[in-house]
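Example record

One chain of 458 residues, shown exactly as stored in the release files.
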Amino acid sequence: MAALSKSIPHSCYEIGHTWHPRCSWAVLHVTQGALTESLRIYGTLYLIAAILRKRKLDYYLHKLLPEILQSTSFLTANGTLYIACFCILRKILGKFYFWSPGFGAALPASYIAILIERKSRRGLLTIYMANQATETLFRMAVARGAITPLRHGEVLLFCITAALFMFFFRCKDGLKGFTYSALKFIVGKEEIPTHSFSPEAAFSKVDRKIKHCGKVSQPMNILAITKKLMDKMCEHGPRHRCCKHYGDNCISYCIKGFIRMFSIGYLIQCCLRIPSTFRHLFTEPSRLLSLFYNKENFQLGAFLGSFVSIYKGTSCFLRWVRNLDDELHALVAGCLAGISMMFYKSTTISMYLVSKLVETIYFKGIEAGKVPYFPHADSIIYAISTSICFQAAVMEVQNLRPSYWKFLLRLTKGRFALMNRKVLDVFGTEASKNFKDFTPKLDPRYTVVPPELPLELS
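Predicted structure tokens for this chain:
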């Protein structure tokens, strides 16, 4: 704690904007880099979202560009205001303390920036940054020996979160909006208690389908054989009277759920790898095969497929055992289905779902009158969460999520890595751990403390 209470007399040029001695020019450089990167990010994001949502021509003509510019202004302002507050805080305090170059400068910058963003996006950004900050604090605690990581901890966390989410999903008015729609897409509408799918209509559709298939003579290839087996399996087999998957028995219901979500997971991972694969297509043509046979493709598919099949299988089993359909079944089924994360371990997914669950419970508490409503809570949480991440980015990059650090480098065109972190080692956080070979070349005319002789880069 003694190291944390220390201060250093260096100027903002010696610590922060080492590439230029003038604060105004440094702010301008960061603004320029953040603006171009923000336009690229949000231009692509909003355009893809508009296409997927099948927006009408009026949206493209009158709303698309203003939304892109507003979100671009938010992200650009966050970067610009940070470096500006970095310099202003140094001039006010006269020196740097442990908290001032990271948390202190980022807090006002982030709060002002989030107010520029559209209200409809503030909640999503808050959850994302709260997730980042929670993981960062956990990494900090582990690095300091305050917490011992639990083996398969992300899987255990996912099991608990999945159990509660599936319970809310099964309850009437338990979930709303995107979360409800996403779970309905994943596990299917058959698991909703209010499902009003007519069994007679389902059976008539199945009968027509089977009769039609019987009339058409086609070659017995693998696809036809598989289809015929699936139809037979759907036609004959046990189905409990409480089960609402009227067109399938319990066995085929689980198998179909696995095949469907495995295919979706496999295709999602393939799509995510397309840009990096095609970038090296002409130099390394063999990488095209890795797009389809990559290990991660099957891992994500196995994760999603097994989650759905285990959840559906457990739900059917409990309906058979207890002879009723109960929302409490979702707690057991969701918890067991969470074990599927063993195929695709991801701290990011687990932490995001925890953040989303806390938000869901909080708003349920407000609706029930049990929890007070705090105005602008999303903006405040976003500012604090972003400040925690910036504190780590300045003082202990090794404890920041690598993907977020790469994002900060893209946003600042690599300037975040040009900070003089060797001087910050005095605070005891190993700030220069990942920058041992870097020492900025400072102009002695603008320094408070005589700079060390620059080291030769290896």
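Notes: The first helix runs from residue 12 to 15.
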